[in-house]
Structure formats: structure tokens, C-alpha cells
Amino acid sequence: MKRICVFCGSYTGKQDFYMAAARQMGAGIAAEGWELVYGGGHVGLMGAVADGALEAGGRVVGVIPRSLSDKELAHRGLTELHVVSSMHERKALMADLSDAFIAMPGGFGTLDELFEIITWAQLGFHRKPIALLNLQGYFDPMLTFINHIAEAGFISNSHSRNALLVRQEAPALLETLRTYEAPSLVKWSKD
Q1: Sequential DSSP letters for 14-39
Q2: CATH number of 3-176, picked from 3.40.50.2300, 3.40.50.450, 3.90.550.10, 3.40.250.10
Q3: How far apart (Å, rounded) are the C-alpha atoms in residues 78 and 88?
């Protein structure tokens, strides 16, 4: 594993622990010797995760659509910054550059990125690990809803249980990724 993609909010959240966890995640990724891939912004949790990695001596690769870069939202201190034409191109390039994915708290954009990468795994487009940093239960309602989707018969029960690696703290999540072994066969079928 060389590059970890982090999906997270462009807002700071109402509690200080969100920003602190983002900086810790960035620093932890750098401490593992991995590069951070993320959405390229300097604001909110996105900026904090990048700054945490950079301050710890890590390499950071940002991918941002031109429309957001033109609004002066791009982080100008990154190791690499890719300016792309659309959100679709952004997500595709982030996925191509990354060996694993972590979702932290965020809004619709974070959820869009997360669910697209889960869908791509379900369709067999990749076998990369997908993890959630479930800070103080932030994703609990979503995880309940995913179980509801499985119970209603729209995804397999095994997919609802196994699609995501969920941890409450950054160090535990990074340890899970460090020791992760991909299953020999990914099966996305009905139970």
C-alpha cells in the first residue's frame, strides 16, 4: 500500500474534535510512509488532513476541479496538485491514484465519493479496502440504513457487513489498513 485516499468535509464541523482527528489522520498516514490523496482543498477537514500529513513530512496529492480551484479553494502547499475539468474526473483520478480509501465526517460530497467507491467495489471494478473513521458515532445512522437496505433485499447481507472497515479512532483504522489482506475472491451476489 502506497497511497491512501481520504474523503472528508470541506467544512470544519461544529465540534473541535473533527479538525483534530483530521490532522491526526494526515499525520498518521505520513508516519506510515504512505502518501495522502484527497480533494485538493485548503478548507475544512480537507485542509486539516493535508496539513497534518505535510507537517509530519508526508507527501500529499490533491485533485480538484478547475471550478473550485478558480475560487481559490485549492491548497497551494501540496506535493502535487491535479486540476481537472469535473467532479467525475476528480473521483476517477483519486480512485486510480489510491490503494485504499478512508471516509471521515463530511457532507453530501463525502457521501457521494464514499458510495461511488463502494459501488465500484460491488461491481468488481476494484478490490481496494474502504474504511470509515466513525468519530463518536458519526456514521452510525448511515450504517443502520445500509443494514436496512440489506434487510429489504437490495444488497446482499454479506455486502452490508463486509463492504466497510469501521473504526472509531485514526490509529486503530490505520493499523487495520496496515495489516489488511484482500480476500482472495470478492463475491458480490445475492445471499
Answers
A1: SSHHHHHHHHHHHHHHHHTTPEEEE-
A2: 3.40.50.450
A3: 22
Q: Would you call 153 helix, strand, or coil by DSSP? A: coil
Tell me, what's the pLDDT at 163?
Answer: 77
> Where does residue 107 fall: left (phi above 0), alpha (psi -120 to 50 degrees), or beta otherwise?
beta
* Predicted confidence (pLDDT) at residue 184 exceeds the cutoff of 90: no
Give the long-range contacts of residues 186-191, CB within 8 A, separation 24 or more.
Answer: 186/121, 186/124, 186/127, 187/158, 188/121, 188/122, 188/123, 188/124, 188/156, 188/159, 189/156, 190/156, 191/156, 191/157, 191/158
The C-alpha atoms of residue 149 and residue 143 are separated, in whole angstroms, by 10
The predicted model gives 24-52 an average pLDDT of 97
The phi and psi torsions of 190 (rounded to 5 degrees) equal -70, 150
Contact criterion met (CB below 8 Å) for 88 and 66: no
On average, the pLDDT of the chain sits at 92
pTM, 2 dp? 0.92
Nearest to 79 by CA among 36, 129, 15: 36
Alpha-carbon gap, residue 36 to 59, rounded angstroms: 6
